[in-house]
Amino acid sequence: MSEKTYKVMSHAGSGSIALGIIVLVTGIVAGTLMIISGAQLLKEKYKVTI
Length: 50
What we know:
The chain has 50 residues and is an all-alpha fold. It has one helix spanning 2-44. The N and C termini lie far apart (73 Å).
């Protein structure tokens, strides 16, 4: 019984680490794209006349 619990906890821990890495990478990519998009908007706002 103890070995089964150990294996389940090991797999759960590994899955959590993998999911954390995926979320971290996705967040970094999304943040970078938002910064680039915001910079482009600020650069182009001077061309707009109201």
